[in-house]
Specification:
Blueprint: E1 4-8, H1 12-24, E2 28-32, H2 35-45, E3 49-53, H3 61-70, E4 77-81, H4 86-94, E5 99-102, H5 107-120, E6 136-139, E7 142-145, E8 150-153, E9 156-158, H6 162-172, H7 181-187, H8 199-212, E10 222-225, E11 229-232
Helix pairs in contact: 2-3, 4-8, 6-8
Length: 235
């Protein structure tokens, strides 16, 4: 069964171009011209990935992303934006998007990023009913159940996006080893190129700290080695 992609784009020319190229790659495609239709179609289509424009009629992309995340769905969301401002990129990541692609973009770039994100989430959905006592402690009161893809702090489940979960498990599986932002883009995001994309790592780390740390301003799990990168601390 082909994997499914939902394209949310009000520019019909861009939407048709994305539809054409991604369909040629073997994906099943549905398109929505506005934010309201996107949320409605998402619930019936159940895509494996969403390409989401920011500037949309009726409901902007940031709000669409927030709505999908509030429903508890962790499907990869890639933002499509013509904006260059750093604040917009950060805002998109903070609403729960996994990544962004800035217009104008090449179809080669879009396909590479779609494939990278789907490849990492192609496994069947984990069993969310797994018990907390099946989770393996990793440090302090933090535990991870890799079968159910659940993370617990002090016995309470934490709601992470797929990317946040992958970043945490990667760092936790290599305790006390420092990884640069470029390393993490290659190892966790699975991108063979980086550039300005490393800012994505900083935002994801910040969001993850807000969820797993008792005091995000003074983290004890994911630490920063100034000038070098991030690491998972185990003492």
């Amino acid at each position: 069964m082909p994997q499914k992609i939902l394209i949310v784009e009000d520019d019909s020319n861009i939407a048709e171009l994305l539809h054409l190229y991604l369909e040629r790659e073997g994906y099943e495609i549905q398109s929505a011209p506005d934010g309201g239709k996107a949320v409605e179609l998402f619930r019936s289509f159940l895509p494996d990935l969403v390409l989401l424009d920011i500037m949309l009629p009726k409901m902007i992309g940031f709000d669409v992303c927030s709505a999908l995340r509030k429903e508890g769905d962790n499907v990869p969301i890639l933002l499509l934006t013509a904006r260059e401002e750093e604040d917009d990129k950060v805002r998109g990541l903070e609403t729960g998007a996994d990544d962004y692609i800035t217009k104008p973009f090449s179809m080669r770039e879009v396909i590479a990023r779609v494939e990278a994100n789907i490849r990492r989430t192609a496994m069947s959905a984990p069993d969310r009913g797994a018990a907390v006592d099946s989770a393996m402690p990793v440090a302090g009161d933090l535990a991870i159940n890799t079968d159910s893809h659940q993370v617990f702090r002090a016995g309470k489940a934490i709601d992470l996006t797929q990317r946040e979960y992958e970043l945490l498990t990667f760092l936790a599986s290599h305790p006390n080893k420092v990884y640069s932002r470029v390393d993490l883009m290659e190892q966790v995001w699975n991108y063979g190129y980086v550039g300005d994309d490393v800012r994505t790592v900083d935002v994801t780390v910040r969001r993850l700290r807000e969820k797993i740390e008792a005091d995000p301003a003074s983290p004890v799990y994911i630490l920063t080695r100034r000038g070098a990168g991030y690491y998972f601390s185990v003492t």
